[in-house]
Amino acid sequence: MTVGVSICTLCELHNMDDMGNAVCAAFPNGIPPEIAHQGFDHRNEFTDDNGIRFVPKKGVTPEKVDRLLALRPAPEAGVSSDDRHLDIQP
User: Fold this and answer.
1) What Rg, from alpha-carbon coordinates, does the chain have?
2) What pTM was computed for the model?
3) Phi and psi (nearest 5°) for 16?
4) Where are the chain's structural domains?
5) Within 10 A of 49 (CB to CB), how many other CB atoms are there?
6) Closest CA to 31 of 74, 82, 80, 77
């Protein structure tokens, strides 16, 4: 089984809207799947993020973020990004 990662779980700006969708200051209408489920490192620029980047929660070190993102899976044929998700608490 392949597990996806999400830098969002460690981000101070991460929130859920009234419908249970992941949102944040950078993406108030929903976090793109490349960030939310496919392991994109949002410490880097992403299209339409309005210049707003990952802000670590209190106690989250750069090393912890690096360890999380090291879990990024290789793409698998036939597995959608929604099937590859892991929540890691700070």
Assistant:
1) 13
2) 0.72
3) -120, 140
4) 1-90
5) 18
6) 82
